[in-house]
């Protein structure tokens, strides 16, 4: 086998379907676009309240994660993204490293996170922000339902339109997000001067074992996603040059964008008042009192911008993850029908629409969870999202180590520093945190029990362990089932294509696979 794979074509060199679809891709992304796309995907205002609710040690654990997780993670993605700059990004890396089954499972885990997130926590938090700060829209009302459905399908529409135009929406969202964080931070300083701070002493920022188990998985989820843009590698103007640079720059910028607002929330909002639904907006409400009579208007503006950033973040993830699944379909790891890229827009429209359908279904399901409390729903939905995206990274991160060994001669514009040992330590460190996060997400309370820490499951989640595990394990079983069915279906398609090619070859003609309409 050649030591230099040439993209998906090297994996399936006879795939005329893949070649036909790649003709619809348009190179439109430059380094500027990618850096802000990375910030748009990674910096999550929606989880600021959730992660800040663990108290002062949240800030400490984030600082610790920068050298132990963020930097190794960014280095791994930079090496693979620069060396194997193909459409589908992580799918290609997993396929070259581990084969079709594991890459298909990783792609499904990676993709399914995003419609669940869009139709779950992003949608519900946006509705709560509108209801509390803009117009009355009680949960379960007609207005609430309409808002959530419009929110979901607006995000999908952004993913459907051509990347040449659609790329500006996440970029604008990133600019707005950074601007909001800067304004809130400056306001916190003014508020602190006038009213004092929350009063955490040095001991309040001391990390604890309980905080490690509780806070770190959510922090890891929040800081993940730098590689999302690599799914559009063949739509970049200079992928090998730009991917390592955009990943490292957006990684450090995003870490900074988390550390400052986390500290701001901790300094202003009492811990018992911070929740996943209202944490960020609570800080805004409290601190904007320094603007006197303008407080009400400015809070409303902040709420609108908050919702806009959540929408653009969801859309950015849809752009990347939908391309990843479409690449799997192009390669024959999922039904070909989903591997079609629109000739008009150059986007995987069929996967986009499937994402919209899944997100819509999740809105309906999430509305019925528990008593309808937005806070409880958010926590469970977020847990499901963590359990799927972090599991995909368990396959993606080690791929870098395997690819270095399998394809040592491939040109690598960026190499993980430290030689072989640097790569090993980086892979082990980054993978450890996603394994921890996956376990804690699916089986919360088990590590606390082993370590002798107090953990009241019903009080923590508001539901029984049986109901919680039914949701999380049931979700994972469905994902594995969808992967197996998709692989089986795609295998049957590949066999039919091979038979057709053989029959035509015997007849002395040229096999032309059925054309797929966009």
Describe the structure.
This protein has helices at residues 8-11, 16-22, 31-42, 48-52, 57-83, 90-98, 100-133, 142-160, 163-166, 168-195, 209-222, 239-268, 279-287, 295-331, 349-368, 374-406, 419-442, 446-450, 457-461, 465-506. The chain is mainly α. Helix 7 (100-133) runs antiparallel to helix 14 (295-331). The protein is globular. The protein starts with 7 loop residues before the first helix and ends in a 12-residue tail after the last helix.
SSE topology sketch:
Blueprint (H helix, E strand, L loop, with lengths): L7 H4 L4 H7 L8 H12 L5 H5 L4 H27 L6 H9 L1 H34 L8 H19 L2 H4 L1 H28 L13 H14 L16 H30 L10 H9 L7 H37 L17 H20 L5 H33 L12 H24 L3 H5 L6 H5 L3 H42 L12
Helix pairs in contact: 3-10, 3-12, 3-14, 5-11, 5-12, 5-16, 5-17, 6-7, 6-16, 7-8, 7-14, 7-15, 7-16, 7-20, 8-14, 8-15, 10-12, 10-14, 11-17, 16-17, 16-20
What is the general shape? globular
How many helices?
20
Radius of gyration: 23 Å
What number is the mean pLDDT?
85
N→C terminal distance: 34 Å
Structural class: mainly alpha
How do the helices and strands follow one another from N- to C-terminus? HHHHHHHHHHHHHHHHHHHH
Report the sheet with the most strands, covering strand number, pairing sense and barrel closure. Answer: none
Share in β-strands: under 5%
Binned, the helix content reads: over 70%
| Low-confidence parts | 6-11, 514-518
Number of strands: 0
């Amino acid at each position: 086998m050649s030591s230099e794979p040439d993209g998906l074509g090297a994996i399936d060199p006879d795939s005329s379907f893949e070649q036909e679809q790649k003709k619809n891709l348009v190179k439109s992304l430059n380094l500027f676009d990618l850096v802000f796309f990375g910030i748009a995907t990674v910096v999550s205002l929606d989880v600021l309240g959730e992660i800040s609710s663990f108290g002062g040690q949240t800030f400490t654990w984030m600082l610790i994660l920068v050298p132990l997780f963020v930097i190794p993670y960014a280095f791994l993605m930079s090496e693979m993204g620069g060396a194997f700059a193909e459409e589908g990004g992580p799918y290609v890396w997993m396929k070259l490293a581990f084969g079709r089954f594991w890459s298909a499972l990783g792609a499904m885990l990676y993709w399914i996170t995003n419609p669940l997130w869009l139709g779950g926590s992003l949608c519900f938090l946006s509705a709560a922000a509108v209801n509390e700060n803009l117009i009355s829209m009680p949960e379960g009302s007609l207005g609430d339902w309409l808002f959530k459905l419009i929110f979901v399908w607006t995000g999908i529409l952004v993913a459907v339109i051509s990347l040449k135009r659609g790329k500006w929406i996440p970029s604008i969202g990133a600019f707005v997000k950074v601007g909001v964080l800067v304004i809130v931070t400056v306001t916190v300083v003014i508020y602190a001067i006038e009213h004092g701070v929350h009063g955490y002493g040095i001991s309040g920022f001391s990390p604890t074992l309980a905080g490690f188990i509780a806070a770190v998985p959510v922090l890891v989820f929040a800081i993940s996603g730098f590689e999302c843009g690599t799914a559009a590698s063949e739509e970049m103007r200079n992928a090998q040059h730009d991917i390592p640079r955009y990943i490292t720059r957006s990684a450090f910028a995003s870490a900074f964008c988390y550390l400052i607002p986390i500290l701001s929330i901790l300094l202003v909002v009492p811990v018992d008042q911070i929740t996943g639904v209202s944490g960020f907006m609570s800080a805004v409400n409290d601190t904007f009192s320094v603007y006197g009579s303008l407080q009400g208007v400015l809070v409303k503006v902040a709420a609108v911008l908050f919702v806009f950033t959540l929408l653009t973040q969801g859309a950015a993830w849809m752009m990347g993850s939908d391309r990843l699944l479409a690449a799997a379909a192009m390669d024959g790891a999922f039904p070909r029908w989903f591997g079609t890229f629109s000739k008009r827009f150059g986007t995987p429209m069929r996967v986009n629409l499937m994402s919209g359908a899944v997100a819509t279904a999740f809105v309906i399901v999430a509305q019925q969870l528990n008593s309808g409390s937005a806070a409880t729903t958010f926590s469970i939905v977020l847990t499901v999202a963590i359990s799927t995206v972090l599991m995909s990274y368990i396959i993606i991160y080690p791929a870098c180590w395997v690819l270095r060994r399998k394809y040592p001669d491939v040109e690598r514009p960026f190499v993980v520093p430290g030689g072989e040992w640097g790569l090993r330590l980086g892979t082990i460190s980054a993978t450890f945190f996603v394994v921890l996060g996956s376990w804690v997400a699916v089986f919360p309370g088990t590590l606390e029990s082993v370590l002798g820490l107090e953990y009241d499951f019903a009080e923590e989640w508001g539901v029984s362990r049986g109901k919680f595990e039914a949701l999380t394990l049931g979700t994972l079983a469905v994902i594995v089932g969808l992967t197996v069915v998709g692989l089986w279906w795609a295998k049957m398609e590949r066999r039919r294509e091979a038979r057709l090619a053989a029959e035509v070859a015997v007849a002395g003609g040229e096999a032309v696979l059925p054309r797929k309409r966009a």
